[in-house]
Amino acid sequence: GAVVSQHPSWVICKSGTSVKIECRSLDFQATTMFWYRQFPKQSLMLMATSNEGSKATYEQGVEKDKFLINHASLTLSTLTVTSAHPEDSSFYICSARSGGPNTEAFFGQGTRLTVV
Amino acid sequence: AQSVAQPEDQVNVAEGNPLTVKCTYSVSGNPYLFWYVQYPNRGLQFLLKYITGDNLVKGSYGFEAEFNKSQTSFHLKKPSALVSDSALYFCAVRESGSGNTPLVFGKGTRLSVIA
């Protein structure tokens, strides 16, 4: 199947700093990518839909100034957690589809963010 | 609105026994249904999907799922469980014709296969 690469796999940062997470579709073009957040022992919470060449669409309750999403090309979307705080510590996962709505989504391996 | 219910937080099964992980869904129109598996600190891996056609779909690692329209269910099954099947399983749905909308996930079911 298609491959989605997410980097870094884990990161530790100090409170107040910013962290950038990259999501790349390696062998297909993704006009849309999705960013999720997963709390321990819970399901995936959709944060935003990232559209190539346009602004991301954020879910209700997600701060767009806190979680900056850029989708500069058909193979790369980035999520930047700005001025991180310990409560931002979580597992962040991106996904992308290579085809239409009846195709499965492929997921990155996730990024474990720890803010100290 | 689309939704998915996974009624069991945890399923325990002995190795070699059949396993079932339950999923029911709610959509306005026709559903596209998916099962994913997640191992610790990893992203989700696609197992199988139902789009149209045969109600019984076969997927990776010997898993299969049966689409039941009247019961709005899409239970995941495997005839003989392995210890290595222990993981977190997610059911997801998207309504057909819904454009480029994201998947809606259930809360997940943790499967534990005991040797």
Overall description:
The complex is a heterodimer of chains A (116) and B (115). Chain A has 116 residues and is mainly β. Chain A is built from no helices and eleven strands. Chain A has strands spanning 4-7, 10-13, 19-25, 32-38, 44-51, 57-58, 67-73, 76-81, 90-97, 105-107, 111-115. In chain A, strands 2, 4, 5, 6, 9, 10 and 11 form a seven-stranded mixed β-sheet that branches. In chain A, strands 1-3-8-7 form a four-stranded antiparallel β-sheet, with no helix packed on it. The termini of chain A are far apart. With 115 residues, chain B is mainly beta. Chain B contains no helices and twelve strands. Chain B is globular.
List keywords for this structure.
heterodimer; A: 116 residues; mainly beta; 7-stranded mixed sheet; 4-stranded antiparallel sheet; globular; B: 115 residues; 6-stranded mixed sheet; 12 strands; 0% helix
What structural class do you assign from the helix and strand content of chain A? mainly beta
Shape of chain A: globular
How many helices of chain A? The count is 0
Please outline the major beta sheet of chain A.
7 strands, mixed
Helix content of chain B: under 10%
Structure class of chain B: mainly beta
- What oligomeric assembly is this protein in? heterodimer
Which spans of chain A have pLDDT < 50 for at least 5 consecutive residues? none
Label the overall shape of chain B: globular
Number of helices of chain B: 0
Radius of gyration of chain A: 13 Å
Task: Give the integer mean of the pLDDT values of chain A.
Answer: 91
Indicate the proportion of strand residues of chain A: over 45%
Order of helices and strands of chain B: EEEEEEEEEEEE
Q: Could you tell me the number of beta strands of chain A?
A: 11
Could you tell me which chain pair has the largest interface and how many residues each side has?
A-B, 26 and 26 residues
Distance between the termini of chain A: 37 Å
